[in-house]
Write a structure and sequence with these properties.
The complex is a heterotrimer of chains A (307), B (537) and C (308). Chain A is built from eleven helices and no strands. The longest helix of chain A has 39 residues. Chain B is globular, with a radius of gyration of 24 Å. In chain B, strands 11, 12, 13, 14, 15, 16 and 17 form a seven-stranded mixed β-sheet that branches. Chain B is α+β, with helices and mostly antiparallel strands and 537 residues long. In chain B, α9 runs antiparallel to α11 and α15 packs antiparallel against α16. Chain C has one domain: MetI-like fold (Orthogonal Bundle), CATH 1.10.3720.10. Helices cover 77% and strands 0% of the residues of chain C. Chain C is elongated, with a radius of gyration of 23 Å. With 308 residues, chain C is an all-alpha fold. The relative contact order of chain C is 0.15. Classes of the chains: A mainly alpha (307), B alpha+beta (537), C mainly alpha (308). Chains in contact: A-B, A-C, B-C. Chains B and C meet through α7, α10, α12 and β15 of B and α12 of C.
């Protein structure tokens, strides 16, 4: 197991390098530069800007300098758009925010999703099943940019219970609406997947055997059904996690949380190369770690899988 | 304690009769809590005055720094860092006397050398400011050469004669030179502070400014908080204790948060002004802004579309646009239909009446059809064009409407939405057919608009070349009353139609009724927190 | 030459077998599916929505881009749904007919859902099954490629693609489709891994059946349940991904629209009051996704090989 983890982490290095190169090439191939403004800048000003940010170098040298600074100093470089901040600053400020509300959304989506899926499966084809699914699906089909204004309208303006935006270092009152808005979409997906994989397991032979042995139903479910039924969910959690980070742009836009999602989308639209690379790398690294955790858990739950 | 402070504020105000800070109406009873929260559409990108490009940034920077002049509600200059000035006979050397009691927020006196440092910094290639051209526009000696790296920044035409005397040398007389000094690019900065902290000097607690407020908190994308600066020279007249700047990326959400009391002023979302101005006139207001919205017609001799090089076609395209519908039905915030370039809101400028502005829309549309036929475009051989616009609800609505206007005269317009970085690239490279554009004045004088379409302008994205126009604008620089030249220039534009002027902006906003002193009428939207106060209701 | 012939022969034999086997499987499944009322109703609803998206514009008195100059500027008082004005669903703020726009937007959204999913499922299933079954180094390399690709934030690539190649319908299809096969591949591979150790597969292998045959005959049919469920999750996902792209302003070009773009525009009416601008597109969006979910469930129950 440990050699497996070590091997995977070792492979992460070329993965991230590949990520840097492919992102840099894609970005530089895209039309439009980071310094475009309403006024066409004079050649001298453009030259000064490019010299300052090293964009006058050939692309391979830029990539090399980037990797060198990253490895030697853990320096992601300066932002082109946020001129008095570095990418390290931007990540250090925005990422913890996203992580906090992303974490809570993840936890809530997972718990509620699995819970709803289990209930629906056990009560298959009963009104409970349909009700649970219907409610979950309503959450899933409302896009974040519809949920967010409704939440603000109801909880801030009409009821006056919660602030309509801001972060205040994650004080709970500021956390509630973003978490609701971000998690609703994923509850349903998880619930549906859980339901179908539960049903599949419930119909399998070893469950029939367990039942035949006269085990009470709750014991059958907790002991025999839950573990294998969770397998497909595990695979799905990786994308959910990444989706929460990229999907957080809606949260950042509507709730002024100052998270990394908005910075990320902005950087892509503004051609803020260094911020885009930095956030991409960060999300990339997290994805690798997350997939690794998922695989390890997979092995724990399903002993037939050996590495 | 707070009450006591406020009382002394009122006292000192009535004694000083200061015009530079909150002028509290004696009839007003001040509210117990003096805070103000302002809406920013986008997060702050930088608070370094020489690097600022965005309006959001300068809204905050104006509270933290003070330049030679500030502007009052009507756009008139008010002495701030300067208390007087003299100008040489050739009008090319300005000497400013600085305010002796002005201090930085760390207690250092504000010296002429601080201005010199800031201005040199703006053009220094190492700073790489995207606004370095502003110093060229100010016609300061050697600005161009310094930006190009041909001269050292110390050779820029600005000198500290002594601690309180600043001398500026221009290369040509510029009647509106002083008006350009209220801009955020030429705010003074504290040299020792910048050198000690490098890029991090704009962080809260580090930033040293000379404005009425200091930066106490900055969470990018969330909010910035400024607090009254006790060392500000006119602190006694400041009423608002602290101001917050909240970033909300969506105008409708911002409006909801205004309704919930979290914001004290917001822009009115598109389409809501007519209703709000009727229902809540005390809060809703709309005032002209120094901005014009227009479509560019690419007539570049090499890259332009052949059809667009034909004056008849360009005129037809302009005539076919029903500005009244756009203004009254699409934008609905009291915008002014534009048939010429510079807005009437510019100080001392009268919008000339050009021929097609006075026609009815029916007549204009008929004329458009006639001109198109004259140019050889008929129902069998329709003119086909593509309009580029950058992503935004407002731009989209206008483009969709224009598409329908053009359909009525037999022009097939394809819409091509792209994001800003690509759009601006294509505009500057002149590889478009029609493109959406707009300009907001940098200073309160019509030339900030009319200079855009001279042959040498960095903003002339249409490839318009007209020697007469260039001469008119060049001559206007030294005229005491440039209006005749501006009138002629606008007439030339209307005759050649390199752009389709569409409307002049307004800013429509909601403002809480207990806020006093907000300069709603300022055409740049320039406001100073130190001039506001809240009354008890 | 000889090997090529042999392979061709193999292939035809496999397809023959699949057909023989398939007929009974599908007939069975159809019977089961038809018994599921919710699924059948949903299928009818989907057919109706598809029909609406294809013919709605022809029925509407207005086209999707025409501006009603009587309404423009006062949509909140004159643009509400009405039979008289011919705006059955009302108009947007510009006075454009929402009935025609909903029909045309639904068509775009459905197309994105189907085409995108088709690409994703095709690529993902084959890739995942091969990777999981072959195992060993091939699996490691193939999954590493998936890891690398999925470590690239998907929205970022999509935004870049739309920026680089201009925003066209084709780019949205391919972009969304090609970026979504990774999840499919992972799930299929995970399932394949656990199937691989099942007794009947071990038995087939022991009796010398070739890998391709095992994948086609034993692995893929057993994956069908998961693939169908995931597909029905994916179609709505695609439609939602497109709506996110539209929200960022990177969707289809005006005057064309999509349900996502209509909802994004309509969502401002939550504050401003002309709620029909949100209701109608959102209703189509919701009902479409709901229907897909129930059809998916029906298919899942019908196709589940373990129930046989």
């Amino acid at each position: 197991m440990f050699s497996f983890i070590a091997r995977r982490l070792l492979v992460a290095v070329p993965t991230l390098l590949f990520l840097i190169v492919i992102s840099a090439v894609l970005m530089h191939a895209a039309p439009g530069g980071p310094f475009n403004s309403e006024r066409k800048l004079s050649a001298e000003v453009v030259a000064n800007l490019q010299a300052k940010y090293g964009l006058d170098q050939p692309l391979y040298l830029q990539i090399w300098t980037y990797i060198r600074d990253l490895v030697l100093h853990f320096d992601f470089g300066p932002s082109f758009k946020y001129k008095d901040r570095t990418v390290n600053d931007i990540i250090a400020q925005g990422f913890p925010v996203t992580l906090v509300y992303g974490f809570w959304s993840f936890v809530i989506a997972t718990i509620l999703g699995i819970g709803a899926g289990v209930i629906a499966a056990i009560r298959q084809n009963t009104p409970t099943d349909y009700l649970v699914l219907s409610v979950a699906i309503i959450g899933a089909v409302l896009p974040g940019y519809v949920i967010a204004p409704i939440l603000v309208l109801v909880f801030t303006l009409k009821l006056g219970w919660l602030p309509g935006g801001g972060w205040e270092d994650g004080e709970w009152r500021y956390l509630v609406l973003p978490v609701i808005a971000l998690s609703t979409g994923y509850i349903a997906s998880i619930a549906r997947l859980m339901r179908s994989s539960m049903l599949e397991t419930l119909n399998s032979n070893f469950v029939r055997t367990a039942r035949a042995k006269g085990l009470p139903e709750w014991k059958v479910i907790t002991r025999h059904v839950m573990k294998p039924a969770l397998l497909p969910i595990l695979s799905y959690l990786g994308p959910v996690f990444v989706g929460m980070i990229t999907g957080s742009v809606v949260i950042d836009m509507y709730f002024s949380t100052g998270g990394i999602g908005k910075s990320f989308v902005d950087s892509a639209l503004n051609r803020d190369y260094s911020v885009m690379l930095g956030v991409t790398l960060l999300v990339g690294a997290l994805t690798i770690v997350f997939n690794l955790i998922v695989d390890v858990l997979y092995a724990f739950i399903d002993p037939k899988i050996r590495y | 304690m707070t009450k006591y402070l406020l009382l002394s504020t009122i006292l000192s105000l009535s004694l000083a009769e200061s015009a530079f800070a909150a002028t509290v109406d004696p009839a007003d009873k001040l509210a117990g809590t003096q805070t103000f929260s302002f809406w920013l559409l986008d997060s702050i990108t930088t608070l370094d005055p020489q690097l600022i490009e965005a309006v959001e940034d300068s809204d905050v920077a104006r509270q933290l720094f003070e330049g030679l002049y500030t502007e009052d509600g009507t756009g008139e200059l008010v002495d701030a860092g300067a208390i007087g000035y003299t100008v040489s006979d050739d009008k090319m050397t300005y000497t400013f006397q600085l305010r002796p009691e002005a201090k930085w927020s760390n207690g250092d006196p504000v010296k002429a050398s601080d201005y010199v440092y800031a201005w040199q910094r703006l053009v220094d290639p190492a700073t790489a400011s995207a606004y370095a051209w502003y110093m060229e526009l100010m016609q300061v000696e050697n600005a161009t050469a310094v930006i190009a790296g041909e001269k050292l920044q110390t050779e820029l035409g600005v000198k500290a004669l002594d601690d309180l005397t600043l001398e500026v040398k221009l290369i040509t007389p510029l009647p509106y030179f002083r008006k350009m000094l209220a801009h955020s690019s030429v705010l003074p900065v504290h040299k020792a502070n910048i050198e000690a902290h490098g890029q991090k000097w704009t962080e809260p607690g580090v930033l040293v400014g000379n404005g009425a407020y200091t930066l106490t908190e900055h969470k990018p994308g969330e909010k910035a908080v400024v607090t009254r600066n006790p060392l500000y020279w006119n602190n006694a007249a400041t009423v608002i204790e602290s101001g917050s700047f909240l970033t909300v990326n969506d105008e409708n959400i911002a409006f909801t948060r205004y309704e919930a009391g979290e914001l004290d002023t917001v822009g009115i979302p598109t389409g809501m002004y007519p209703q709000l101005s009727k229902d809540r006139p005390a809060e809703a207001s709309s005032a002209p802004r120094a901005c014009t919205y227009y479509y560019l017609l690419n007539m570049d001799p090499e890259k332009g579309l052949e059809a667009l090089k034909n004056i008849s076609v360009r005129k037809a395209l302009s005539y076919a646009v029903d500005r009244d519908i756009l203004v009254d039905k699409v934008l609905q915030s009291g915008q002014i239909p534009a048939y010429t370039l510079a807005p009437a809101a510019m100080a001392g400028f009268t919008v000339p009446s050009v021929d097609y502005a006075t026609m009815t829309q029916e007549a204009r549309s008929e004329e458009a059809k006639r001109l198109l036929t004259e140019a050889g475009f008929t129902a069998e051989n329709p003119l086909k064009l593509t309009l580029n616009y950058n992503t935004s609800e407002g731009h989209k609505s206008i483009a969709v409407a224009v598409q329908q206007f053009y359909k009525a005269v037999g022009v097939e317009l394809t819409l091509n939405n792209m994001e800003w970085q690509v759009h601006s690239d294509i505009m500057h490279e002149r590889t478009y057919e029609l493109a959406r554009s707009a300009w907001c004045g940098d200073y309160n004088e019509a030339s900030t608009f009319l200079d855009l379409f001279t042959s040498s302008s960095g903003f002339n994205d249409v490839g318009y070349l007209n020697a007469d126009y260039d001469t008119l604008m060049a001559d206007s620089k030294t005229m005491d009353d440039p209006q005749p030249n501006y009138t002629k220039a606008e007439e030339i534009l209307a005759a050649d139609m390199p752009i389709i002027p569409i409307y002049h902006y307004t800013s429509s906003r909601m403002l809480k009724t207990d806020v006093r002193g907000y300069p709603k009428m300022n055409v740049f939207g320039t406001w100073y927190l130190k001039e506001l106060y809240r009354v008890a209701e | 030459m000889v090997t090529a012939k042999l392979r061709a022969g193999d292939l035809s034999r496999i397809t023959d077998m699949a057909e023989v086997k398939g007929r009974s499987l599908w007939a069975d499944a159809r019977k089961r599916f038809l018994l599921n009322k919710a699924a059948v109703a949903s299928l009818l609803v989907l057919m109706f929505i598809t029909l609406f998206s294809l013919t709605g514009e022809a029925v509407a008195p207005w086209t999707n881009e025409e501006i009603d100059f009587n309404v423009i500027g006062s949509a909140d008082t004159k643009g509400m749904p009405s039979l008289e004005s011919g705006h059955y669903f009302g108009t947007d703020d510009l006075g454009r007919d929402l009935f025609a726009r909903s029909a045309q937007g639904t068509r775009v959204s459905l197309m994105v859902g189907f085409v995108g999913t088709f690409i994703a499922v095709l690529v993902g299933t084959v890739y995942g099954a091969v990777s999981g079954y072959v195992g060993g180094r091939t699996d490691a390399i193939m999954m590493r490629i998936v890891d690398i690709l999925s470590a690239i934030p998907y929205m970022f690539v999509l935004i870049l693609l739309l920026v680089m190649f201009g925003r066209s319908m084709f780019m949205i299809f391919v972009g969304i489709g090609l970026l979504s096969w990774l999840g499919m591949a992972r799930i299929v591979r995970g399932q394949t891994l656990s199937l691989k150790h099942k007794e009947y597969i071990e038995a087939a292998r022991a009796s010398g059946v070739s890998s391709w045959k095992i994948i086609l005959r034993h692995i893929l049919p057993n994956l069908l349940g998961v693939v169908v469920v995931y597909t029905t999750l994916l179609i709505p996902d695609m439609i939602m991904a497109e709506s996110f792209i539209s929200f960022l302003g990177l969707g289809v070009q005006e005057p064309l629209t999509s349900l996502g773009a209509l909802i994004a525009e309509g969502s401002k009416s939550i504050v401003q009051g002309s709620l029909w601008q949100l209701y109608f597109p959102l209703a189509f969006f919701t009902v479409t996704l709901y229907a897909f979910y129930f059809v998916g469930d029906g298919l899942r129950d019908a196709l589940d090989p373990k129930d046989r």
